[in-house]
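Hypothesis: this fold can be encoded by more than one sequence.
Test: take the structure tokens below, design a sequence, compare later.
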């Protein structure tokens, strides 16, 4: 019995058959036109205009505000058209369309039922190659050149500025209550370089 609702997010309408063949719910984001067979973040309570800054999170917001109360009590998961869940360690060079369908997660094993959420392996955001950092955020390095030479200065706050726009996270934190603000500000200081990729997660609904 299927116990997982997996939403697969993409920017390309041509991915529809591939996603459906996996047994996943197709989600179309971005500026291209998707027909009514797709889930989208553009109706109801929506922040779809912010997709270029926050990517998959605009659909997470849409699901929360518009669709979550219509879903059953099964697990809810998110993946991308090129990034999938699997319970097996698979080398990238050995992957093709057939092996994705074979290994992609379709059902949550019974031994996972005691958990509330499943996350990916953590990512260390200070480990990328310098040229990739510079290509994506040259202005940040011009303002603070030490980031080029000292990877310990590349913390979560730096990563968010790089990927989503400078100071956007800081301004968002300023709107929060003082207690939550303090927790987040401590999380973003230099000693933290570890990020859980929350856009790829599975979560169990709890009533």
């Amino acid at each position: 019995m299927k116990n997982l609702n997996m939403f697969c997010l993409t920017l390309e309408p041509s991915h529809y058959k591939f996603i459906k063949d996996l047994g996943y719910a197709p989600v179309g984001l971005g500026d291209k036109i998707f027909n009514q067979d797709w889930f989208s973040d553009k109706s109801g309570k929506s922040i779809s205009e912010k997709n270029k800054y926050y990517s998959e999170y605009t659909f997470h917001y849409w699901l929360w505000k518009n669709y979550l109360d219509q879903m059953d009590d099964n697990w809810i998961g998110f993946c991308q058209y090129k990034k999938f869940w699997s319970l097996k360690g698979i080398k990238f060079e050995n992957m093709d369309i057939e092996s994705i369908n074979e290994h992609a997660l379709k059902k949550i094993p019974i031994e996972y039922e005691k958990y509330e959420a499943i996350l990916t392996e953590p990512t260390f955001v200070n480990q990328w190659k310098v040229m990739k950092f510079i290509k994506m955020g040259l202005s940040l390095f011009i303002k603070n050149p030490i980031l080029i030479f000292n990877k310990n200065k590349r913390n979560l706050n730096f990563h968010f500025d790089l990927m989503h726009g400078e100071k956007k996270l800081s301004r968002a934190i300023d709107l929060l209550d003082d207690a939550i603000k303090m927790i987040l500000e401590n999380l973003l200081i230099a000693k933290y370089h570890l990020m859980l990729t929350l856009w790829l997660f599975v979560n169990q609904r709890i009533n």
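The longest strand covers residues 4-10. Residues 130-143 form the longest helix (14 residues).
Hypothesis status: open.
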